[in-house]
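Would you mind writing out the residues of a protein together with its fold in token form for me to study?
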Amino acid sequence: MNITLTEQLPQTHTKKILKKEANDKDASCLVVLVDDKKNIVAASALTEYQDRIEQLIDVSHFTGKACETVADYALAGDKKTTKQNPVQLLLVGVGSLDKLSNTILQKIATTIYQSTQKRVASITVALGDALEADEFGQFALNLLAASYRFEKYKSEQSTPVLTDIYLLADSTLQPTLEFAESVFAGQSLTRDVANEPGNICFPAYMAEQAQELAKAYPDLLKVTVLGEKEMAALGMGCFLSVSQGSTKEGQLVILEYQGKSKFSANTDTQSAIQKATTNAAKVSNGLKAITDKLPLKGTGKKAVKEDSNAQTANDDAPIALVGKGVTFDSGGISIKPGAAMDEMKFDMGGAASVLGTIKALCAARLPINVVGALACAENMPSGDATRPGDIVKAMNGKSVEILNTDAEGRLVLADTLCYVQRYQPKAIIDVATLTGACVVALGHVRSAVFSNDEDVLFALENASAQSGDLIWHMPLDDAYQPQIDSPIADIQNIGGKSAGAVTAACFLARFIEDGQAWAHLDIAGTAWVSGADKAATGRPVPLFMQYLKNCADMA
């Protein structure tokens, strides 16, 4: 789909279009927005069509209610009328311009696309100055998103006629449009990999997608993949407890987006490796391979202040995005009910969104450093699977009693959070389809956000308002922590029925070092749509991109 800013109305021609084919290259449509007071948006640019628009409003009893439509196919009238106004018209109601939200903009954009995709090659949407920059960006992104389809496994695929969208608006919005196109590119990749079935998209597939992305942007992106032997050498017992039940090897995929500077991991890591291999001496042969992959371990903010050469002592320190990538979640030994289990292919939505965000960053070339971590594993029941009641050790040395193998996302995230802190990032944001409890709490409208840092929380909430990718602040009080205390280990991986989304966040918080800014996004209700039309949404790529753009702008 091509989308372009324009300051011109569609070109007219003198041929009657009554018998023209719908896929004729000249077929075009002018989309006119009308509010609930029957005011025409961008009226000053539509003077040559004003009489025709007003007549259409009058004869169709058009009210301007949001997403109401009426079309004039330019088929009626004498030769003179047809010659003067051959372009098709589509009137679309927008309701009250003062009450436009991302939800309404999304519905309007979808209505426009669905009303025109099968019959015209191009549309021009007259916007004028009706939308502020943020609203314009949301509208443009939603128009593009409406064109997304995942039909690669269908023997007969639909091909839309519509290929070009022109937005009649001020040229100063060009950077906003280009940013929306970058977000769409990343969001589409997120949806593509999340929509893949579990027999195609397993951990190695995710690693391959990251490596292909690095080949496309070698000047911006470096990708490193850690396998199970390397993770065992690092003491990632929590991560491995999830992947060990599957024949598909778990993969920790690290993407270093170097948009501002080359911040690659320091290779002087022998002491860190020796510490990490205390509980994994048998795999010492794999240590040499890890040396080039393990970032330098710091000792907290105090160490940064004492060492002027520390990586985080300057503005080039990266922001870390960590995604849960359980490519299929059967629940393990604590197996899930069979109904809708097919949708557990979407349980890697967090990792998919991080991968998509990295692609969007590359497309937008934002001047910022970002580490993306995809914690990819398949959770399957087998003779090698983890049992309820097993105790494992995390990379930071803490012991975890696994009471429910279906609470596995927090386990792969725990070790990955430990790993990325070796970059001493400015902030860590993990994203996961983590808990059904979050769906009960917030439904499918807002993602839940938990944070230990007010600045990060404020920045995410601001980005949420700008992008329309909505979040809601949830509690992280210390009073919830006793629910995950184990009588025989440091932590247990579930905290009972009460406040399930909160106790899951509390579990992750135990793997965050003192002073490290961190936020957790639970996207269990927003990563995909369930039911007959099940599909990934691509969230929260718009949120992440707006957040990172704001961070880059402030740097």
